Amino acid sequence: MGITKSEIFTDAQNELATIAKVIGHPARVAILQYLFEKNSCVCGDLVNEIGLAQPTISQHLRELKNVGLIKGDIEGTRVCYCIDSDKWLEVQNLLMHFFNRNPADNSCC
Amino acid sequence: MGITKSEIFTDAQNELATIAKVIGHPARVAILQYLFEKNSCVCGDLVNEIGLAQPTISQHLRELKNVGLIKGDIEGTRVCYCIDSDKWLEVQNLLMHFFNRNPADNSCC
DNA sequence: TTGTTATATCGCAATATTACGATTAATTGA
DNA sequence: TCAATTAATCGTAATATTGCGATATAACAA
Question: Across the interface, do A25 and B17 touch by the CB < 8 Å criterion?
């Protein structure tokens, strides 16, 4: 049905999935990378850098902002975006916990 | 249009996004967690453990298998699934590289 | 062979996502 | 004030995802 049954999963499972889902688009990966390189950027930069239309970039920025990975500051007619350090470290931690376990060697297959 | 313009992004960006997208569903997170706990499982286990129908679980298993995170071995009428260690470590590395950078403090906002 | 069990696949309905043109809103500069 | 600039929002089309009932497939057990 296109709708995820979030209610049958734990908060932790839903949280990890939500974060991963946002990172699950190359445009948003590219935006995060660009933000790290430049340490700040405006929507217009990204429209030039990435080959997507302005409304599309704006939409992706909103999704990144919704999960808290980036924040934006209005500067006149432009909006300055940057990584939210606190959230970034939180996500770093979340992913660490999930991925930093080593799979057993004695796997069945 | 619902279709991602993968061709305008780098291979690395697309790869990270593809992996993240697969992890971007709580059922698949739950499956991976269960696999780590039990070190092996069959589809039926998951149908009982998670509250989703068998065809739905099967579909999620296929997606995890498609990106290589898990593999399945046929054992009679059952299929034994487990984490693919090599791929897991590869993904671990990929995510490390992306997330293990610390955001600058002198952010604009 | 026949029934049982376990999983995959098909087909569908409901919803979500992606992308963008057109428009709006807000600020700056002349 | 008026035009220009920048970004958000609206509306929409195309496609993808999620979930499941029904069915198919495959292996085993009797």
Answer: yes
Residue that has been written with the tokens 């046929």 in this structure: B74
- Closest residue, chain A, to B31 (C-alpha): A13
3-state secondary structure of A5: coil
Determine the distance between A52 (CA) and C3 (C1') in angstroms.
58
The token duo for B90 is 């590869």
The partner residues of B75 in beta bridges, in order of sequence, read B78
- What would the pLDDT profile of B55-94 be if each residue is shown by its tens digit? 999 999 999 999 999 999 999 999 999 999 999 999 999 9
Topology of the domain covering B12-88: Arc Repressor Mutant, subunit A (1.10.10)
Q: Domain spanning A9-92 has what CATH number?
A: 1.10.10.10
B19 by Cβ neighbours in 10 Å (0-12 / 13-18 / 19+) ranks as buried
Smallest Cα–C1' distance to nucleotide C4: which residue has it? B77
pLDDT tens digits, residue range A58-70? 999 999 999 999 9
Is A25 in the B-facing interface, judged by CB distances under 8 Å?
yes
